[in-house]
Amino acid sequence: LCKLEYLNPSCSIKDRIVKHIIDDAERRGLLKPGGTIIENTSGNTGAAVAMIAAIKGYHAILTMPDKVSIEKQNALRAYGAELIICPTAAPPDSPEHYVNVAKKLAENTPNSFRINQYDNLKNPEAHYLSTAPEIWEQTGGKIDYFVASSSTGGTVSGIGRYLKEKNPNIKIIVPDPIGSIYYHYFKTGHLPESAGCTYELEGIGEDHLTKAMDFSVVDEVIQVEDRDAFEVARQLARREGILAGGSSGANVWGALQIAKRLTEPATIVTIIPDGGIKYLSKIYNDEWMKEKELLCTS
């Protein structure tokens, strides 16, 4: 079963966390009228920030790695947001890393508020209070596996905690891009000694630990290659009529791996976090796929 989160207003699951965080910041007086919202993003959180900023009259400044698709960049500009593009290859401790650029901006911008999705516990709380109860209700509580890739950790942690409280036998599975730290950290309990390889998947995987990620609710992390995730995403469009992003491909690929192991019927739920319109120049562009040596010819 796939929960189609790309049907949210800014076309991704991130609408949930951004609305929850901004509502909370307004209640607490952290975000004042006419203020500036600052955030680091791989695109989807930025779109939600830019959309809500436009509605509420805030200014939005968003930092993002340069691997983010041009469609995502243009969408943020269309909402009126200011973008700062940072090098994808910048290590987590570099002042050029997009997270650190956002932190510095927030420190130096008067009347500003940073969403801080990586370390803000309102992120997983948003999913604990909304997405997870919806899944439980929509499945009638009949769910055996929940599969979702992770970047900030909000989706997996919030939904995972809720589902485990309802039924501790539900398994939480995280597909993780090769090059991300999560697989290694989950297996060993410590960070890899050297930086991982870069990968083309956007919005999932991570190069640093976050406070929003709760590994205690995770049962398994499985590595997924760019090629497999993108091929599944393309097949979703052509076979199911679901035009989704690469993270959706990774999620469905992960769900299929679990399905292959089953010896008896089970219900597997996953998420379609965003739509494929944001990736027409990449995943759904044969020339780009060939250039990156990711196009399956079989």
Strand percentage:
5-15%
Bulk shape? globular
Helical proportion?
Answer: 40-55%
H/E element order: EHEHEHEHEHEHEHEHHEH
Query: Might you state the CATH topology name of the largest domain?
Result: Rossmann fold
Q: Can you identify the CATH class of the largest domain?
A: Alpha Beta
As residue ranges, the low-confidence spans are none
End-to-end Cα distance: 27 Å
Quantity of strands, as a count: 9
How does this structure look, described?
With 298 residues, this protein is α/β, with parallel strands linked by helices. It folds into two domains: 9-114, Rossmann fold; 124-291, Rossmann fold (3-Layer(aba) Sandwich), CATH 3.40.50.1100. Helix content is 41%, strand content 14%. The chain is built from ten helices and nine strands. The chain has helices at 14-27, 44-56, 70-78, 98-108, 122-138, 154-166, 182-188, 226-240, 246-261, 286-291, and strands spanning 2-4, 36-40, 59-65, 82-86, 112-114, 145-147, 171-177, 220-224, 268-272. The strands form two sheets. A five-stranded parallel sheet has the order 1-9-6-7-8, sandwiched between helices. α1 (14-27) packs across α2 and α1 packs across α5 (122-138). The mean pLDDT is 97.
